[in-house]
Structures are given as structure tokens and as C-alpha cells.
Design a protein that fits this description.
6 strands, about 280 residues, 6-stranded mixed sheet, alpha/beta
Length: about 280
């Protein structure tokens, strides 16, 4: 008997994500990471010597990508990543898909990448940026140590992030040609962990995991977490560090004009070099 088809685990409550993002906009969104990701994505796109006629912006929280591309492409459509994560893009209908700081919150990243691949015309381009790697590793470690010490167990506090190698493998699995990934590590300093957590709230990036703790964190645990964070991740002036890894990914829909892929493990070019090498 054939095995039933596997479904992606539902890690993230996407309805809660939308609520958090709406709250962040009401409170005054903190957008420095998004602005950096959008700027770098557009810089990479500017290095591609070709014109694009039909683009889609998949899931970017704000309209920055859409606004910047309006003079570069004939048409662009913002595509929401809803609860079902169905993009509803017609096959081979786009020659460019971009996304900034959205893909880290999808439950089925392989499925979304496959949908994007199907939506691209031959020799169409995907350019995306997502949080990954060691993002918020300091906060994760500090919460885990405090909960183990104060409560005898650990609950999910920071979402799991894909690393660079995983993302590259997923691009290949989805059928992209010439997949390239690289990472921009941003280390931000804060007066305290509570200032960091306030920024995360105003980014709309607080905990949306289905397995998150549903009861308020005990005051003693929170204070101990802050102490551990300061002990392990503070500079000499007392300010703490927070790591954000922005993973950039690109891939092309296969076309006969493209160069042959390198042998596994032999790629040395950066994402910027790869997109600069494309011809119109």
C-alpha cells in the first residue's frame, strides 16, 4: 500500500502573525531590518542587465519593494502568504519574483518555493531575503538557560531558522537553476534585552509558534533571562548584542541558454556575482 502524502508541519500561527504585524503598524513599526533587506535585494536586482515585464512581490510586510519596482517593471503584483500559503499565481506568468523578510514565517517553505518556480517563465528570476542562520541566537540561549534553571523545562521562544546550506538545498529541490545563497550578519546593540524585545514587538516578530507557552512568563524567569543575557552577551559598556542573519537567495527558472551547473560543493561565487553574470 502506498504511503499517504506527507504534509508540512504547521509550526506557525499565520493568523497571529498578521495580528502582530497589524499591532506593530499601529504602534509605530520598527523597520530597519526590512529596509536593509529591501535595499540589498534591489541592489542585487540592479546588477541584472535585463528588463522584467511581469513581477510578483511575495509576502513582503510593507510596500517598499512594490514601490521601488514600479519604475523597473511593466507590472507588479503583491501576493499575500495567507493561511493556506497558496500563492495563486498562474504557471509561467512572471519573469521576476521578489520577497523580503517573509519566507522565514511559512510552514511549507519547500512548497512555497515550488509554487514560485512554477510561476516563473523560463529564465525568470527569484530574488528573496529571509531571516535565518543564527538570528536571535543570544535570546534563544538566554531563555533556554533561564527556563531550565527556574522552571525545570524549556518552551519554544524563538522560531527555528533555516541555515544557508538548507536554503540552497531547498532551491535545488524546487527545481531552480544556478541557485545561490549568501548571508548578511547584522549585529545590533541594545541597552537591555527588554529594549530588544520591544523592537521585536514593533517588528511584528514576536512568538507565533503553535507550541508556544500560552501562560505569562513568570517574573523570576524573565529577570533571570535578562541576567543571563547580560552575563553572556554584553560588551564592556554594558550594552547587549543581538544577531540577525539576513539570508539572500536567488535562482532561475531553467532555460537552455543557461550555463551548466557546477559540481556539488564547487560553487564559490557570491549572490551578487551570480546575478551580475546574467545576460539580457
Amino acid at each position: 500500500m502506498a504511503s499517504p502524502p506527507q504534509t508540512a508541519p504547521h509550526l506557525f500561527d499565520r493568523a497571529l502573525l498578521r495580528a502582530h504585524q497589524a499591532r506593530a503598524r499601529r504602534d509605530g513599526a520598527v523597520t530597519f531590518l526590512l529596509e536593509r533587506a529591501v535595499e540589498d535585494t534591489l541592489d542585487r536586482l540592479a546588477a541584472v542587465a535585463r528588463q522584467f515585464s511581469a513581477a510578483a512581490d511575495v509576502g513582503t510586510p510593507e510596500a517598499a519593494v512594490e514601490a521601488a519596482l514600479r519604475g523597473r517593471v511593466a507590472s507588479i503584483e503583491r501576493v499575500d502568504l495567507g493561511d493556506t500559503e497558496s500563492l495563486r499565481l498562474a504557471p509561467e506568468s512572471r519573469d521576476l519574483v521578489v520577497s523580503a523578510l517573509a519566507l522565514q514565517f511559512v510552514n511549507d517553505l519547500p512548497g512555497v518555493l515550488a509554487q514560485i518556480r512554477r510561476a516563473l517563465k523560463p529564465d525568470g528570476l527569484l530574488l528573496a531575503a529571509m531571516l535565518g542562520g543564527d538570528t536571535l541566537t543570544e535570546l534563544r540561549q538566554s531563555f533556554a538557560a533561564a527556563e531550565a534553571e527556574c522552571e525545570g523545562g524549556v518552551s519554544p521562544r524563538v522560531i527555528p531558522f533555516a541555515d544557508l546550506r538548507d536554503v540552497g538545498a531547498l532551491l535545488q529541490r524546487a527545481g531552480f537553476a544556478l541557485p545561490v545563497t549568501d548571508v548578511d550578519r547584522v549585529v545590533v546593540r541594545y541597552a537591555s534585552v527588554f529594549a530588544l524585545m520591544a523592537d521585536l514587538r514593533r517588528m511584528g516578530a514576536t512568538n507565533i509558534m503553535f507550541e508556544r507557552r500560552r501562560t505569562p512568563t513568570r517574573r523570576a524567569t524573565m529577570l533571570r533571562m535578562a541576567e543571563i543575557y547580560a552575563e553572556r552577551f554584553a560588551d564592556a559598556d554594558g550594552r547587549i548584542r543581538a544577531t540577525f542573519d539576513i539570508v539572500f537567495l536567488s535562482g532561475w527558472a531553467p532555460h537552455e541558454s543557461q550555463q551548466k551547473p557546477l559540481q556539488p560543493g564547487s560553487a564559490k561565487a557570491s549572490l551578487e556575482a551570480a546575478v551580475k553574470g546574467r545576460k539580457p
